[in-house]
Amino acid sequence: MIFKEKIILGVDPGTVVMGYGLVKMVDNKPELLQFGVIHLSKYKDHAEKLLKIYERITHLIAEYLPDEMALEAPFFGKNVQSMLKLGRAQGVAMAAALAKQIPITEYAPKKVKQAVTGNGNASKEQIAGILVKQFGLKEMPELFDATDAVAVALCHAYQQHSNTGKRKTWKTFLEENPDRLTKPQTPKE
Predict the structure, then answer these.
(1) pLDDT tens for residues 40-75?
(2) Of 21, 26, 113, 172, which is most buried with the most CB atoms under 10 A?
(3) What's the CA gap between 119 and 103, in Å, rounded?
(4) Could you tell me if 147 and 131 are in contact, meaning their C-beta atoms sit under 8 angstroms apart?
(5) CB of 21 closer than 8 Å to CB of 144
(6) Does 87 fall in a domain?
(7) Active-site residue set
(8) Which tens digits make up the pLDDT trace of 82-100?
(9) pLDDT tens for residues 130-149?
(10) Is 147 domain-assigned?
(11) Cβ atoms of residues 3 and 62 within 8 Å
């Protein structure tokens, strides 16, 4: 079976720090291409922050040519102003992808945690620890926004793989693994 390589840009939206992670799927195995954060606290004007998000995401898209974008959906908080600003930041990141006709998918934080750790209530430290181990990183990242973004990209990759119908039935399993099929034996008389 031929598997097309796919690059996924994961984004963990933020107005102080925005995380990003680029994962390349090759034969259903993830390779970490790049991850990091966009520091926004030095910009006092919210409009300037939005411009920096757009510019950086546009730059990442031009450099890595992702096939798809996955974002962590904002969780609901009590501070309406913070939610509004976070929604704008997410919208600007989405606009950068949409301008290049890149499909976008959102995932709830619990779904991302579940996909990467098996626990929908996992901590940011647990997610980072698993990713450090999985990708052989030398040290734990300083900011978890970057590893959260990688987790979003991985969640999307895993979701896409599970939606292809692979190994959901015995028939597809046997079609993909003919070497696992044993020939029927004729009964001895």
Answers:
(1) 999 999 999 999 999 999 999 999 999 999 999 877
(2) 21
(3) 27
(4) yes
(5) no
(6) yes
(7) 12, 72, 145
(8) 888 889 999 999 999 999 9
(9) 999 999 988 888 889 999 99
(10) yes
(11) no
- Domain membership of residue 61 (yes or no) is yes
Minimal CA–CA distance to 106: which of 75, 156, 71? 71
Residue 170 clears pLDDT 60, i.e. is over it: no
The verdict on residue 185 lying in a domain is no
CATH of residue 43's domain is 3.30.420.10
In degrees and rounded to multiples of 5, residue 9 shows phi and psi of: -95, 115
- Name the residue among 152, 124, 153, 154 with its Cα closest to residue 140: 124
Q: What is the pTM of this model?
A: 0.82
Q: Is-contact 61 102, C-beta < 8 A? A: yes
Percent of the chain with pLDDT over 90: 66
Domain span holding position 48:
6-180
Q: What domain count does the chain have?
A: 1
Distance CA 22, CA 107 (A): 16
Amino acid identity at 144: F
